[in-house]
Amino acid sequence: MDLGEVNHQRIKTNGIWLHVVEKGSGPLVLLLHGFPEFWYSWRHQITFLASRGYHVVAPDLRGCGDSDSPLSPSSYTVLHLAGDLVGLLDYFGEQQIMTDLALIFEKAFVVGHDWGAVLGWHLSLFRPDRVKGLIAMSTPYYPRDPAAKPIESFTGKFGDGLYISQFQEPGRAERAFARYDYLTVMKKFLLINKTDLLVAPGGMEIIDHLQTPAVLPPWITEEELQVYADKFEESGFTGPLNYYRAMDLNWELSAPWQGAKVTVPTKCIVGDKDIGFDAYRTREYVQGDTFKGLVPDLEVVILEGHHFIHEERAHEVSQEILTFLQRLSVE
């Protein structure tokens, strides 16, 4: 896909350097990728939104792509990540206005997928003054369980075969992934069409359990998959895997927000064939009262598709984003 002219730069924020891609001018829209991705996953939306009057910024999140990758998993909490984004918002000229001795910050639109959605939820929770609207894809906002840390809970329910459990031990997943070339690893993850949970049989690594499709779906090319493979061959998988290794620490640090609501206007987009959509009762949750109670200003959109919905249904997702941005821009 031809992205046309985009601006690449590295920006110092929160003590690290982040690589970002930007295009267009107008209201600021942050596009936050998930696992295992980098800014390139938004290639369709970057051009679409920039051509419709928006300043689109797609960073490689910390640990990913061409951004800095701190060594310790404890440097990958949602507080670190939210801090990175606040620094980006400041850098990109979200103007600070002195009024009655108080700083008022212009807000930005935030769009996130997978871990990017988790980050979008938490940025909206921590700093609603900086978020004009949130679009979260494939990962709803779940309440914090005050009784149990997430890894203990996940492993207790699904065992060691669950991908999240297998990602905890430093080096384990990296060694398992290394048995395959990078293009095969990308195909195994990005082309997932499983609708049940990602749980490997006993004694098997999740990367061995995932299938490698013999035929590519029509929404992605071999060349595009190779772009992912080449980038991860440069950057490795440890940074992205550290997001999972910080999950228990996130639980500890987020205790002050126990029971807090996400109050910014939000659209949640989920594919009807996403991982665990029915098996883990995601469909029931996103359409139910608990989710709406936690996110009062919420619109839920269920599209036909799998986990990487912003690539599989790129035009439809872009239109959903644009409709949301336009609605909030006139309010």
Describe this entry's structure for a reader.
The structure is a single chain. By secondary structure, the protein is an alpha/beta fold. It has a single domain (7-328), classed as 3-Layer(aba) Sandwich (Rossmann fold). Helix content is 38%, strand content 18%. The protein has helices at residues 43-50, 78-91, 115-126, 150-158, 163-166, 172-177, 182-190, 206-209, 222-235, 238-245, 247-253, 282-286, 289-294, 309-312, 314-330; strands at 7-13, 16-23, 28-32, 55-59, 96-99, 102-105, 108-113, 131-137, 266-271, 298-303. The strands form two sheets. The protein has an eight-stranded mixed sheet, with helices on both faces. A two-stranded antiparallel ribbon has the order 5-6. It holds the Pfam family Abhydrolase_1. Its EC number is 3.3.2.10.
CATH topology: Rossmann fold
Main sheet strand line-up? 1-2-4-3-7-8-9-10
What's the β-strand tally? Answer: 10
CATH superfamily: Alpha/Beta hydrolase fold, catalytic domain
How many distinct helices?
15
Quickly give the structural class: alpha/beta
Encode the helix/strand succession as letters.
EEEHEHEEEHEHHHHHHHHEHHEHH
